[in-house]
Amino acid sequence: MRLRTRMPKSARVAAIALALAGAGLSTAVPASAAPAPESSVSYVKYEGSSEEAKANRAFFEAVIRSVAEKRAANPQAAAVTVVYDASRAPTFAGQIARSTSIWNGAVANVKLQSGSASSADFSYREGNDPRGSYASTNGHGSGYIFLDYAQNQQYDSTRVTAHETGHVLGLPDHYSGPCSELMSGGGPGTSCTNANPNAAERARVDQLWANGFAEALDKALGKAR
Ligand SMILES: [Zn+2]
Question: Crossing angle for the helix pair 157-168 and 53-73, nearest 10 degrees?
Fold first, then answer.
């Protein structure tokens, strides 16, 4: 496992946790089921005791940069579109489609679209992981949402998928919130089945993509702002 020297504290903690989880798992989980811990230095979970704000921010920034770089190369494109690759999470195809439909109906300034691995800004993966479901990125264009089999049977699976996708769109965790909030994640318990972002969450995503995308596009085009 490689650690960068200037990694933020939260990422170091996550990296150490990943290393420990990886060590304990080596015999229990097939190599193909869980992603390689070395590929991720930060992640945000569906349920947890603290907000992984830096990890979430890193994923969002990597995605918005990826979308802006494609737009800079193709200025005629009409909508701000985040492309995902769902080919490595076939069990969750229905949940991913529903999450996409929910988000595309809820926000105006960014759209999710299914695409190939080569064109994707992020991907979905599935498997067994004691950490549960999470969004993970190395901050350099290889972010993915991991959907854990056990947790998706315990909690409403469409809510888990839409929640993790909310991280990609820029929203932080807020575990103390009510079931009506998507980003409260596992906080309200397993009985919560709401998979829709509330009005404040929708407004926040629209605001992030209105302001953040213009800035990312200027950077991709090499303009000062
Ligand atoms: Zn979360």
Answer: 70
Predicted TM-score (pTM) of this structure: 0.77
The answer to whether 91 and 149 are in contact (CB under 8 A) is: yes
Residues of the chain predicted below pLDDT 70: 1-43, 49-52, 78, 139-141, 224-225
How many residues in the chain? 225
Choose the catalytic residue: 47, 52, 164, 181: 164
Chain segment 15-46, per-residue pLDDT in tens = 444 444 444 333 344 444 444 444 444 667 77
- Spatial distance between the Cα atoms of 25 and 5, rounded to a whole number of angstroms: 26
| Of 35, 64, 53, residue with least CA distance to 133 | 35
Which three-class secondary structure state does DSSP give residue 36? coil
Measured distance CA(104)–CA(113) in Å, rounded? 9
The reply to whether 126 belongs to the active site is: no
Angle at 16 between CA 41 and CA 22, to 5 degrees: 90
What is the 78 CA–ligand 1 centroid distance (Å)? Answer: 30
- Ion ligand 1 residues within 5 Å by Cβ: 44, 173, 185
Residue 38 CA to residue 36 CA, distance in Å, equals 5
Cβ(120)–Cβ(83) under 8 Å? yes
